[in-house]
Fold:
Amino acid sequence: MQNAKDTFYVTLRDRLAAVNPARTMVLRGVTRPGVLVEENELASAHQPVDAFCLRWTGSRVDMRGALPLVAMDCEIRYGSDGNAGN
Structure:
């Protein structure tokens, strides 16, 4: 399942970076695209602003088909400080 999580993250990160290369974040002194996976980072009390934060919330196995199918739930959060008009 880790391979599926990593593939989803890398694909989302690369597509969002292609759409808006200016959306970046600085984490531990490194500038990178504005997407992070919560379980891969150090625990933090706040969500970074102007960045997408992925959290894997659960998984289940569907045994109805010929082969078992694993489904995973991913929660994507985005936070913003707003702008001068808001």
